[in-house]
Amino acid sequence: MLSVRLRCITSFCLFFTALNGKETSHVEFKDVGEQITIQCRYTESDQTSLTLKKGLDEESEVLHRVNNGKSTIATQFENRLEVNGEMPNTDILIKNLTSEDTGPYWCVYKRVISGKPEEKKGKGSMLLVVRDSTQPCEITNKSLILGSVVISGAVLLLIILAFFMWYIFKNKNSHTSKKPRHATTNDVYEDMRGTLRN
Question: Is residue 185 part of a domain?
């Protein structure tokens, strides 16, 4: 069920990002341990660098490659990344995928025009979804439900106990606050009884 939701959400997000840009974007589903090749392409050859960025806001750099062939690779991808091809057409192979590799990847090209840097997205941007079948989701849901039931039951018992204590104290106070009724005596009757005995 989680896999279906994840696929729907990622497809929905990628659909709108694809409408937003001219580059070709697609979704790739891979399992943990597999590999993927990201093919970054650009039509103009005057690009000075290529940066493969990851994240919705392109917040992390996976690879930075300059025109002379020098590459800088992020530490989490250091032993798992291979770069093939010449600028601007570069194939980036990521091996031994982990669930942390899930996310959008962007091919961002940079060139300098009249002393001003200009960045443009190239073809090859994609959304990678790495499926991890080793994580059981149902166990945490059952413990969450069990905890909710126990807490709800305890709160209900406390409310019932508080109600009964209030009821007992209310009735106890109402009995003690009443003054005992004295029977009205008829003094005349008492006097007559006293004279009859004599």
Answer: no
